C-alpha cells in the first residue's frame, strides 16, 4: 500500500480538458473536473498500473494482483471486476466497451468481448507493457527483454525481436500502419515504415516509458529522470519541465493540450509553448 505524501502516478486517461483520470501506486483513481483533483471511491488498495476508457461511462483501471476496477460514470464508486486471473496487470488497450485487452506480468493477456473474459496466448512469458494498432487485425505489442508480437485478429504472431535482450520496450504509438513508434530502455526509439523497424537517435540513455502524438510531426516521449522529448518530424529534442520528477506516461488531445504524469503526484500539461504544473 502507498504510504507517502503524494502517490507516484503511473497512467492517465484524458476525455477532455475537464475530465481527466489518473491512477498510481496508492490504488485510488483521481479525477480532474477542470478546477481541482478529487479522489474517487473504491475499496481497492492495490497499486494501479494502467487505465483505459472506451467512453466516459466505461473506464477500466488495472493493477497489481490482477485487480480490475470498472467505472460506469454513475456516482463515484469504482467496482472490482473478477476476471478469473490474478496475475498482475500493466495496462489496457482496445476499441470499444466490448473489444479490449488487459495485459501484464508474465505474458498475461485477457480479452473482453462484451460477454466474457478469454485468455489470448501472446507466445511469451515476459512482461507486456504496450499495444497499438488501427484495428483488431493488426495490433503491435511490446514488452520486457525486447519482446515484440503482432496480433492478427485471432492470435499473436511471433516476430523477430527488435532489440537485444537487455533492452525492454515500454511504449508504442502510431498514426497509421506504416508509421509506428516504439520507445524503451537505454534511450531506445524505433520507427516502423510498414516494411522495417529502424532505430532513431534520441539523444539520451534514459529509460523512455511512454509515447503519444497529435500527428506524425508532433510527437511526445517521457521517461526517467524528468526526460521529455519532442519530435517535429525531423529530430528529437529535449523539453524543459517545471518539475524534476520521473515521468511515466504521456497522453493528449491535440498539439496544445498534452498531459504527462509521474512520481510524487506529478501531473503536467503542455499548452503548445511550455509545460505547466497541475499536480495533485
Summarize the entry for a quick read:
This protein has 280 residues and is an all-beta fold. The protein has one domain: Methylamine Dehydrogenase, Chain H, CATH 2.130.10.10.
Word description of this protein:
It contains no helices and 28 strands. The relative contact order is 0.11. The chain has 280 residues and is mainly β. It starts with 8 loop residues before the first strand and ends with a strand. The chain has a single domain, classed as YVTN repeat-like/Quinoprotein amine dehydrogenase (Methylamine Dehydrogenase, Chain H), CATH 2.130.10. 0% of the residues lie in helices and 51% in strands. The chain has strands spanning 9-16, 19-24, 30-32, 37-39, 48-55, 58-63, 68-71, 79-80, 89-96, 99-104, 109-112, 117-119, 128-132, 139-143, 148-151, 156-158, 169-176, 179-184, 189-192, 197-199, 208-215, 218-223, 227-231, 236-238, 247-254, 257-262, 266-270, 275-277. The strands form 7 sheets. The chain has a 4-stranded antiparallel β-sheet with strand order 1-2-3-4, with no helix packed on it. The mean pLDDT is 96.
Rg, Å, rounded = 17 Å
Number of helices: 0
Instruction: Provide mean pLDDT, rounded.
Output: 96
The tally of domains stands at 1
Structural class: mainly beta
Can you tell me the residue ranges where pLDDT is under 50 for at least 5 consecutive residues?
Answer: none
Which key phrases capture this entry?
single chain; 280 residues; mainly beta; 4-stranded antiparallel β-sheet; 28 strands; globular
Topology:
Elements: E1 9-16, E2 19-24, E3 30-32, E4 37-39, E5 48-55, E6 58-63, E7 68-71, E8 79-80, E9 89-96, E10 99-104, E11 109-112, E12 117-119, E13 128-132, E14 139-143, E15 148-151, E16 156-158, E17 169-176, E18 179-184, E19 189-192, E20 197-199, E21 208-215, E22 218-223, E23 227-231, E24 236-238, E25 247-254, E26 257-262, E27 266-270, E28 275-277
Antiparallel strand pairs: 1-2, 2-3, 3-4, 5-6, 6-7, 7-8, 9-10, 10-11, 11-12, 13-14, 14-15, 15-16, 17-18, 18-19, 19-20, 21-22, 22-23, 23-24, 25-26, 26-27, 27-28
